[in-house]
């Protein structure tokens, strides 16, 4: 029996793979550097030219790394797949043994219906595998809004009643949200982790089929030296044009990159924070996150915890695998360009913190490379911007020198990305760069076209080609906008501006970006693009033409961002068969079930409008069922005489004046105090009406109306 897959690949073979991979990066970078240096030193290498060359080498190496990953991925796919995959250790039809597994879902002010209907789908899917006895489910809440907290509690209870999940589905609300998601999971492991051999982490928007979950646990049982197995979730349920583009691109192009990653990293893979299985004991023993030296944004608690946890697991000798070929793992992406930028703002600070860890003692070279690529994913944007600005300065210097010098033959030179170079060398360098950027996409399309069944899942060959062309054009257009966003985020991080923990808007939420939000977000980019464009045109009209693919998207970023955020345009593209994915053309049963459940939830009535803002608090005080549930889930705390008096004053104010004048902190304090909740419920129903605030009198009048609506409709 093969207990650990790395035993089937000796170190020499793995070293050969990595030598070929990194040699490819070096070779492409060396060729491009030779061309660039040859172009720069014709007039002598000065300080500006040296800076340009150094930036070019760093940036081109980053591009070459992505290209070489796709290149080896194509090699693997073309020869029929890689036999050295973690999934080969368990056969599809094998009834492999399982072990106790906790499925944990950390949440923070998420759409309650989406969270619990998603959990319902996952639970039912596991139930249908006949392996439910091996799995427990945990919703780990850090929600800091009173309404969210109460909605989660009631939705949890209703879910348990409907699926018979008592003793199998658990809900926990932390009092203190320390260290965000990583701290939430760590707190769970300290309290309950030793009861389970494995833990599968899901995001609030994650869906995994029962078969995928069972397969992950079976793989861990078969490979006892593996600490983490990461799946590659598909992006689904996007309605806006932006979300559909991201879903299509990820689904079409990712197989090449996933195969390439597995080819060279093998058991030294990475962890992406969700849709992965973790061996609990070594995770507890070795993956506690250290505090970085200094304060935020570079120091303090680590934000992007997943890369570091994978590195710590490998440092302790446990394998970390990427199982990119496991089907039935899904997530949702941000619906708009602005929402994507907000998420990147958080990730940027977290990834830049990893610069501290590049030289950490005991980390494996592969993990250092993962950390470096994470840093470069954001630092490359300001470097590209600096590269082009320096190019603008060089053109200005050249034009000024040319006007002061004797006339030279203008046909000898052409402008390319801000430089005056001889045509053959400059064009060769341009073509090489474009090949590295776009050949992986072209190869992915060709590979899919060569498989008629796969092409059909993307809408057929014609629609696949049109979709790929449209995605390529829009991605080229958005590249300068994303560059500007990330350059700004890196600058803010360097200036010491930390980032707060906010709720991520998911794929199906909202009705797009409004003009006000777009102007506030993209206004600086538009102004910068106008100034840069006018300046470059004054310097050299030819240079302006070459720079226009960068300037144009910045100037037009406001209307384009709005157009991409509209769900109506996304649905129109879907009707035309554009940007289809296999999960849309042939949706798995779990995704269809989720959409049906959510449609039922969202069709029902919302709470009476004047009560909406504090509807959860109203239910916890007014409804005996919700009040009893909430109190039962609270832990009793000792109170001093001062705290008892303070709570008594809060209760009196709440009943007399209503919740409008209360702060969120005061509402949360009341909700966390079991004695106050019991007392409030009793006093509300026993007080004369003239001693209650009008808000409470309205709530009591509407109570019977509201409680006749289905519970799932009220807790969205």
Low-confidence stretches: 1-8, 407-423, 708-716
Shape: globular
Instruction: Note the total helix count.
Output: 27
Rg, nearest Å: 28 Å
The helix fraction, in percent, is: 55-70%
Largest β-sheet summary: 7 strands, mixed
Quickly count the domains: 2
Instruction: Estimate what percentage of residues fall within beta strands.
Output: 5-15%
Q: Can you give the mean pLDDT?
A: 87
Q: Helix/strand/pairing class, anyone?
A: alpha/beta
Strands of the widest sheet, in order across it, are 3-2-1-4-8-6-9
Please tally the β strands and state the result: 12
Cα distance spanning the termini: 49 Å
Provide a short characterization of the protein structure.
Helices cover 62% and strands 7% of the residues. It contains 27 helices and 12 strands. The model is unreliable at 1-8, 407-423 and 708-716 (pLDDT under 50).
What does this structure look like?
The structure is a single chain. The protein has helices spanning 11-40, 47-78, 112-128, 146-163, 180-192, 210-222, 241-265, 280-286, 305-315, 337-353, 365-404, 423-449, 452-457, 461-494, 515-539, 541-555, 557-564, 567-575, 582-585, 589-603, 615-622, 624-633, 641-657, 664-672, 674-686, 694-707, 711-714; strands spanning 101-107, 135-141, 169-173, 198-201, 207-208, 226-231, 234-235, 276-279, 319-323, 329-331, 414-416, 419-421. It is α/β, with parallel strands linked by helices and 716 residues long. The chain folds into 2 domains: 1-96 and 209-512 and 565-603, no CATH class; 609-714, no CATH class. The strands form 3 sheets. Strands 3-2-1-4-8-6-9 form a 7-stranded mixed sheet, sandwiched between helices. It has a 3-stranded mixed sheet with strand order 5-10-7. Helix 9 (305-315) packs across helix 11 (365-404). The protein starts with 10 loop residues before the first helix and ends with a helix. Residues 1-8, 407-423 and 708-716 have low confidence and may be disordered.
